[in-house]
Amino acid sequence: MTAEGLNSQLRREIYTDMVLIRKFEEKLIALAREKARVVGMQILSYGQEAVAVGVVKALKPDDVVVTNHRSHGHLLAKGADPKFLMAEIMCKATGVNKGKAGTLHLAVPEINAIMTSTIVGASPPLGVGAAFAQQYRNLPDITVVFFGDGAAAEGSVHEAMNLAALWKLPVLFVCENNYWAGAQCLPEHSCVEEIVRRADAYGMPGAAMDGNDVEAVYKTTREMAEHCRSGKGPVLMEVRTYRMRGHGEHDPCHYMDQVELQQWAERCPVKSFRHRLMNENLLTDKDFAAIDAEQEAVVEAAVTFGDDSPFPAAEDALMDLWINS
Ligand SMILES: Cc1ncc(C[n+]2csc(CCOP(=O)(O)OP(=O)(O)O)c2C)c(N)n1
Ligand SMILES: [Mg+2]
Questions:
Q1: Which ligand neighbours the alpha carbon of 120 most closely?
Q2: Which protein residue's CA is at the shortest distance from atom 21 of ligand 1?
Q3: 69 CB less than 6 Å from ligand 1?
Q4: What's the CATH code of the domain at 55?
Q5: Residue 324 domain-assigned?
Q6: Considering the entire predicted model, what is its pTM?
């Protein structure tokens, strides 16, 4: 498959970004087991790297991303510096939000990743607001909103989609369907398992694809982003994948079927893309080893940076607050 622009250089970059996200989160799995090393829940996108990288790589730098609680992959793919991201996850003063957001409220406005909302179903209305601003200012940019299959059942998501379609706002709604919403699986929280079918009800195009195939995600996103950018209004993409760990690292996930997990592990997006690149002779074993070592060093440097950084000073606690009086 060669979508427009999906050349060897870009494919290598896509693979490298997926490895970075995988290694970054593998490190967080280890840190979460060490008392007080990282603060708060660690909610990971392990196994969902193809969604983050496939979508974000198909965007332009000025496009806005609004994300949810499972945001590390989205932010790294958008270009967040792993050092400052890791420091924030460790709640250090050098973090992207000066240590006041932690893992669940990350925002990196410099790269147009304006918000991580942990309120399930809140990212779509926030994204509609950002897209309204883009339309109002006649900007050529679009807004991409990530939300989960569980979030798709929230009333706020319905309102956001209806308004976006009505006002023809440049929003790409990306439902990252990982089959789980906390401890509930998809058939337990929705009668209609193909979330993309809802697009028709809002009067917008919809597209569903294999979320473990990074090139399929990239290719569809390119097409759909073009639709949004050309003033034709929003699109709903349903990217089908699987949550490979518990809801967060605190979750022993006794409720998950081990056979099903194993089947999805065999469809690991990083491994399958690696096989494809190897079969097409684009990268060799030596290249893969170099990429692994390079990204491991990036993650190690990020952890050292976080470890060496101070916590925010008590006297700064009330700085950077917005007060509506
Ligand atoms: C309004 C609201 N309700 C409930 C929660 C608790 N909660 C956090 S994540 C989550 C599951 C969300 O599932 P999904 O949208 O599929 O995202 P995923 O975790 O699978 O990425 C729930 C119920 C919350 N944060 N906000
Ligand atoms: Mg889910």
A1: 1
A2: 148
A3: yes
A4: 3.40.50.970
A5: no
A6: 0.97
